[in-house]
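Each record in this resource describes a single protein on a pair of labelled lines. The shape at a given residue is found from the number at the same position. The record below illustrates this layout:

***
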Amino acid sequence: MLLAIFALLSCLPLFAADKIPETGEVFPELASFDELMRSFVKENEIPGAALAVAKDGRLMYTRGFGYADEVLKQPVQPDSLFRIASISKPLTAVAIMQLAEKGKLKLEDHIFSLLPHKPHLGAEAKADPRLDEITIRHLLQHRGGWDRGQSFDPMFRPIKIASTLGVASPAGPNDIIRYMMGLELDFKPGSRFAYSNFGYCLLGRVIEQVSGKPYEEYMRKEVLLPLGIRSMRIGRTLLKGRAKGEVRYHTRGNSTAIAVMGKQIGRKVPRPYGSWYLEAMDSHGAWIASAVDLVRFGSAIEFFPKSKVLTEKSIREMVARPKGAAGYNRDGKPKLAYYGLGWSIRPVGNTGKSNRWHTGGFDGTSTILVLRHDGICWAVLFNARKTADRQTAASKIDSLIHRAANTVKEWPKHDLFPRP
């Protein structure tokens, strides 16, 4: 009965009232962002959203719109925490690059020479010999050899994998790695691009192996705290594990699925709370953060000489075009956009500059972080994945945020970033 009520409330039509709640300080010079967010949240029937914008490393704007919890009518705050999903990947990529700078690893190191995992093999089965060819660079650029479109995404099959291995469900990262090492690759490592959550799962284990620390502990201490980011953490699957200040996630349409963990395992639960195992996705999709957190992180990447988050050499590596089919069309011409080391990259003409971004999405979540070539950085976070017309919220608002930024005639002189 409680599940039915929760599911109903999670997909109720939103905003019957004319006005949605807003939080955060208002600046007249930045009215274009206010106007966009008000109309977008209301017209697209999104429960809640947060937007943060920085210019030249200074935080210009941070506001919340709509509801963090639509049921309890709690408004989104500028520092509300959201699941950021795949925006977790740039975080992991930065940690890998830092470890490379310290001489703890090399991008050309073969991944399975660094990890202790042994493949789970069936009777008379042999591991794919191409596993030995996969490098850290391949994984950072999604060229490792796994194609979820051709086969499947193992990060969303924790019950099947646990059953196959004979371990407790849901399967964790180390179990998933053993299982995948026993299967044939979808393509030759390095030969092309295919987005892979599993590849970044492996990178998380590399961080643990070479640092000797659990992934989250290492990331918070060595990557985030030096940048003054304290509130980011790995999220929790179940509603009872919801962090202080974290929003509630809403779905529309088919709002339930079979639970893979918790007391309701095997039964229908609200999709955002148990239909996949978030904790196992730590290094590719499990972080929760505020929009301010992400803009601080993005600004540190953009203005690396000041933040010292990475060296200039590492930044060049991150934005470099990959070789072969991942970076070039069949006619040999460079692709307009490609995936670098943890970021989607679009070069801006022949300026030597580029726009970098990453999106993220789960049931109940849609996010985007953008580092624009002119020093503007923004993050938009939603607690619903789809708009009223079934588009992905972050993708739909992307061009509109660019337009809103372009209309700002004079940026304020302030800096709203909390002091580290």
